[in-house]
Structure to design on (557 residues):
């Protein structure tokens, strides 16, 4: 990828493209990667930064969706488990197995309610016992049996559970334990997919902070939101991958749709050693008294906990509010009553909107997480079709992108030439297969570049095997105010990852902000280093540092 201005210049020189993709979240970037590999010329635009929506604000679980079994969504669960396994294999630099423990209060609760939910009868969900969970987990294991990538489930007695998860409430009957997976940096995976797409097919471009609106039957005006400059493009097809914004984006293209009914979900990022130690390498997945499922697990050296599920109108207005913070803290204290937890431990909060289809359901957790493609055919006012990507999960983006790409290829009268499903993502190319190979990789790169092994291990975690390039080609001097990052890393991101704002670097190309490390001196230093590459004068550097600082401060106030 290049700098933003260079990509904009390229776009201005272009009159047409085969596919215009709106939205640079996991679905839009996954689609770009797939279509580019088929030789299709694509332009992807995002009205904000890439991954500014749900893809950077999810719970980061890469999972089959155990609880969707209760809604009889077998197809969704099977597809999600298959995609989870693919990601564990081909995105193993970011996607790792995650042991999951469910505290249970009884053996037989839910024996009546769960079948009622399964049959679609109205019921308030809540209180599943060990027997019901066992049925679900048995099925979960059954559908993964052929391509098993994770161990089988098991139950742990109350005594053993309380020993292994110190601080857990003591009035449980047992815990159910199984494996799913989590993704450390979905944001960087999206950027990798853009880079891969553009490398595969230089006739593809992806740019952030650009909006699209229809001006004539066959032309779309692209506007650079920072300069107001415009250019016009003629696409043969448009894919609307704007997640919760699908209806808004369609409206800008002159299409009236009411496909979406998003719900917002918030998360807390917590710095608390007792909780961190108690969780160990497992996620605790628990049901609050109101039936809401909450999760908590280690995220680097912090803990993430979430989330809420509240209907919203305009996704632009969604924010984590104080009621949600109180609610989440109270559920956490409910499940870990013996730990000292307080609101002062929160270092960051974030909120996103699930791109759910509109539904008449009151109980939002029961809205299907399956995806579909809405095909709006050309008409007398529009020469190109619009395909709207509705719903879905982070986990299933590969399948969703593939299905959308096939539909678009069909429309363009072209055939799929390659499959990208079994192709490692950029940072997973030659990723060490096991711990021994990983140690050897770290030792080799550390010694070749005269670096500490700890530092190389950190780079491998951040960039996958692309860390070798960062270690060997960039300035490894640590930042004075954030020693975990080097001057060269920031320069590399600023130079190569289409940066327009400091928050793009600290929130969506790195985990600086989400882990609560965005303190003023660090941000000022990063703004200066990035600013030298991006041509920001000192006034702009100060403004960017202030914006990034306020984002973190406001998130915790
Ligand atoms: C709280 C929460 C928890 C979740 N947890 C999980 C989980 O644990 N596991 C899981 O698998 N899934 C989870 N999900 C779902 C998952 O995050 C989403 O399904 C997925 O990220 C959607 O990706 P997307 O690319 O469709 O949309 P988004 O990631 O929202 O991307 C849409 C993009 O479109 C851009 N855009 C908006 N309007 C326009 C426009 N007019 N023109 C151009 N661009 C535009 C936005 O800026 C944004 O970057 C969760 C979601 C939320 C909100």
């Amino acid at each position: 990828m290049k700098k933003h201005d260079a990509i904009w210049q390229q776009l201005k020189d272009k009159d047409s493209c085969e596919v215009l993709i709106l939205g640079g979240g996991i679905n839009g970037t996954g689609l770009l990667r797939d279509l580019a590999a088929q030789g299709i010329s694509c332009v992807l635009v995002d009205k904000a930064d890439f991954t500014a929506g749900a893809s950077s604000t999810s719970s980061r679980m890469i999972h089959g969706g155990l609880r969707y079994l209760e809604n009889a969504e077998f197809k969704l669960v099977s597809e999600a488990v298959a995609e989870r396994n693919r990601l564990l294999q081909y995105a193993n630099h970011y996607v790792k197995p995650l042991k999951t423990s469910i505290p249970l209060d009884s053996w037989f609760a839910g024996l009546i309610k769960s079948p009622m939910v399964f049959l679609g009868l109205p019921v308030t969900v809540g209180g599943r016992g060990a027997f019901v969970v066992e049925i679900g987990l048995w099925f979960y294991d059954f559908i993964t049996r052929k391509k098993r990538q994770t161990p089988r489930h098991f139950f742990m007695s109350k005594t053993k559970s309380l020993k292994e998860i110190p601080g857990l409430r003591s009035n449980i009957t047992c815990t159910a334990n199984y494996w799913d997976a989590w993704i450390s940096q979905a944001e960087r995976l999206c950027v990798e997919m853009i880079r891969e797409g553009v490398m595969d097919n230089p006739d593809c471009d992806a740019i952030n902070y650009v909006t699209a609106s229809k001006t004539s039957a066959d032309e779309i005006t692209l506007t650079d939101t920072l300069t107001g400059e415009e250019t016009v493009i003629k696409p043969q097809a448009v894919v609307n991958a704007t997640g919760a914004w699908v209806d808004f984006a369609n409206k800008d293209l002159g299409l009236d749709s009411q496909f979406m009914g998003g719900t917002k979900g918030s998360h807390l990022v917590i710095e608390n050693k007792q909780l961190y130690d108690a969780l160990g390498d497992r996620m605790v997945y628990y049901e609050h008294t109101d039936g809401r499922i909450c999760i908590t697990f280690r995220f680097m050296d912090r803990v993430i906990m979430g989330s809420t599920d509240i209907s919203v109108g305009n996704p632009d207005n969604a924010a984590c509010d104080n009621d949600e913070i109180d609610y989440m803290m109270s559920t956490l204290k409910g499940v870990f009553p013996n730990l000292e937890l307080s609101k002062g431990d929160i270092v960051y909060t974030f909120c996103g909107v699930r791109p759910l289809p509109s539904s008449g359901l009151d109980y939002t957790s029961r809205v299907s997480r399956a995806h579909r493609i809405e095909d709006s055919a050309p008409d007398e006012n529009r020469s190109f079709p619009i395909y709207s990507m509705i719903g879905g999960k982070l986990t299933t983006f590969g399948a969703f992108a593939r299905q959308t790409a096939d539909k678009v290829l069909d429309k363009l009268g072209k055939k799929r030439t390659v499959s990208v499903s079994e192709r490692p993502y950029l940072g997973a190319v030659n990723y060490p297969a096991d711990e021994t190979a990983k140690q050897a990789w770290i030792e080799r790169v550390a010694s070749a570049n005269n670096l500490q092994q700890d530092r190389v291990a950190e780079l491998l975690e951040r960039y996958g095997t692309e860390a070798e390039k960062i270690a060997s080609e960039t300035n490894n001097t640590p930042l004075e105010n954030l020693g975990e990052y080097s001057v060269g890393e920031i320069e590399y991101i600023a130079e190569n990852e289409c940066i327009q704002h400091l928050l793009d670097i600290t929130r969506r190309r790195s985990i600086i902000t989400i882990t609560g490390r965005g303190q003023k001196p660090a941000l000022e230093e990063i703004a200066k280093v990035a600013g030298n590459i991006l041509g920001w004068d000192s006034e702009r550097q100060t403004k960017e540092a202030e914006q990034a600082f306020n984002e973190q401060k406001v998130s915790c106030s």
